[in-house]
Amino acid sequence: MKVRGRVLSVASECVPLVKTGGLADVVGALPGALAPLGWEMRVLLPAYRALRARVADWPEVWREEGLWGGPGVVRMGQVDGITVLALDAPHLYDREGGPYSGPHGDWWDNPQRFAALSWVAARIAREGLPGWKPDVLHAHDWQAGLAPAYLAYGGKAGVGSVLTIHNIAFQGIAPASLLGELRLPGAEFYPGGLEYYGGISTLKAGLVTADRITTVSPSYADELMRPEFGMGLQGVIAARAGVVSGILNGVDTGIWAPGAAAVPYGAADMAGKAANRAALCAEFGLEVPGPLAILVSRLTDQKGIDLLPGAMPGFIEGGGGLLVLGSGDPALEAAMRGLEAQFPGRVAVRIGYDEALSRRMFAGGDAVLVPSRFEPCGLTQMYGLRFGTLPVVSAVGGLGDTVINASPAALAAGAATGVVFHPVDGLAFGQALRRLLALHASPDWAAVQAAAMRQPVGWESSAAAYATLYAGLRV
Q: I want to staple 416 with a disulfide (CB 3.0 to 4.6 A). Which of 265, 273, 410, 461 is the partner?
């Protein structure tokens, strides 16, 4: 296929190499999704300690001598069909712990560590690699927020830039005293430029310099211009509203497939789902006469987990059951354990994360709960749609963009795919669970499951939207 354009994607995570959240899934999925559309994408990310041995034999394609305390080498290789550019700078990334923190908390030099990643990204974008020069630099979240800034301040060389906000709650804050050390121009340190409440935000730096800004759902793009969601950056985003758009994430429909469940099934024949449900209940000693709801989530207030203790008793008494998989706030972990103790045989809790178990839960559950207070896109509800495990979601961000509420009109039209509630409080969530009980007992249940499973949740339409965005940046 003819190459329409080349993109350098820069991020701190990428499946299958390193993952702490949904960012990694998106970064890892985009290259393969864009390839059939003629866009060639390479992914630049740090060579953390866990990756160094894997990339050690890859050929060197770039070297940077003065990279915040030492040299950095970019090595290029292939991983699961993705062309990866690994920035090997041991003084910055060869450390015990995760990408952002170690045994004692966040790394003190995170601003410099990710400035280095962004600096190299901007230089490669501007100068190119042997036989390859990108048309577009695509930066993801605060960790790569300085890449569009370095490109803009150092000369763009015909390269367009995109910054994607995956979660605005993380903004890459640094003190103003680091302005010079981060190689940022002092003349740009003012409220309309780099200055952010007296300091620096690497995310803001990208927002004010990128040619285009995207978020991971259309509704989240709108929400970010409001103070209750923008977290201090709403004015910056509103000022650039003309270049802001929302593009939904997708899921890997090959991995998240009901046909790959222990007992395969599909929208035309749901018998296998009943068998998976029975096996799941047997595994956890559950006897649930009504809908079995699953919760696969970080246990945090942002995810609305604090709403469950007040809302679930009515749902359980109405015949429902609950299976929880997740970890997070110790108080919320204890609250989930409390529900399990209060309703033995109807509630089961597994603290931690187990991807194989999560797939069994989606295959066997009747509904998946996602009562988030904010949700940029969300993948959990898409997994639910894929498996006919009806999402019960708050009407925020990508949740409202992907789930069609089982209203009378939507049911009559055969379009309903789940239950949507608003506002995000205990009363509304409790009412949503009552509606779930009623829907499960109605003749409409099977039709809603089938409609959910027909909903497109793959990367095809999202990749096409990114391709159109990139094409608009060609100069």
A: 410
